[in-house]
Amino acid sequence: MHQTLLEQGRSFLKDTVRKTIDFSATDQSRGIDPPPIEKPFAEEATRIALVPPGGGWNGISRIDLIAAIRNRMSRRTYRDDPLSIEELSFLLWATQGIRQRIDVGHAFRTVPSAGCRHALETYLCVLNVEGIDRGLYRYLPVEHQLLLEFTDDHLAEKIAGASFGQRYPGEAAVTFLWTAVPYRMEWRYGGAAHKVIALDAGHVCQNLYLACEAIGTGTCAIAAYDQEAMDRFVGVDGADEFVVYLAPVGRVED
């Protein structure tokens, strides 16, 4: 008798949680260098400099942490007003920004990650941000820049379609799409890596929620999407890298 999908999911979760890490069998223990903390890119690729942390963010509104936690909620309706590049820079730093580079494979960021592995990449479907053309971009945390992946006149329709017809990814100013590069975590944790990748995604998205509340924007995490369609939309292979989470962001009513 075949297991139901629910039973399969429960079985996978239990097996993953119970899995004992054999550190003697990992690539880290074998002396293999860690994978880099961001995917490589061509030097001639189009890149956009973001506003660095500190003084450049003085123009964005903000509220205190207690108010951000108290007001945090999922927001699916957005105004047509664009986000500023300062606001987008802040949100990217708050979710995957680097505080201190350690070596080629490790860095302290603004969110926790098991073993400091940070297996996520951040892509952005930009639809309404001042000074940035519509397109799909990848965040480069080391350089604090955006890398243009491609432009498309039908971005809004395609991302909404890949989200099972949910409209708000196509109505937001920008949608954050996080992919997992599992080997970054497997290098240290082997088969137990997949549990902590999921935990890392939760850390990142909660930071986005609070950062959005702090500057008068809103977001709504989305885990219901067509996996193959969303991987194609982002341009990843679905095996060595695949989409794990997304969150539209837009300006909301006070």
Mean pLDDT: 91
Secondary-structure class: alpha+beta
Order of helices and strands: HEHHEEEEEHEHHEHE
- What separation lies between the terminal Cα atoms? 54 Å
Please identify the top-level CATH class: Alpha Beta
For the biggest sheet, the summary is: 7 strands, antiparallel
Which regions are unreliable across 5 or more consecutive residues at pLDDT < 50?
none
Number of helices: 7
Strand order of the largest sheet: 1-6-5-4-7-9-8
What does the model show?
This protein has a single domain (5-251), classed as NADH Oxidase, CATH 3.40.109.10. The chain is 31% helix and 20% strand. The chain has helices at 5-18, 65-71, 85-96, 155-162, 182-189, 193-214, 227-234; strands spanning 47-49, 98-103, 106-109, 120-126, 135-140, 145-150, 174-180, 217-219, 242-251. The mean pLDDT is 91.
List the helices and strands and how they pair.
Elements: H1 5-18, E1 47-49, H2 65-71, H3 85-96, E2 98-103, E3 106-109, E4 120-126, E5 135-140, E6 145-150, H4 155-162, E7 174-180, H5 182-189, H6 193-214, E8 217-219, H7 227-234, E9 242-251
Antiparallel strand pairs: 1-6, 2-3, 4-5, 4-7, 5-6, 7-9, 8-9
Helix pairs in contact: 2-6, 3-6, 4-7, 5-6
Short description:
By secondary structure, the protein is α+β, with helices and mostly antiparallel strands.
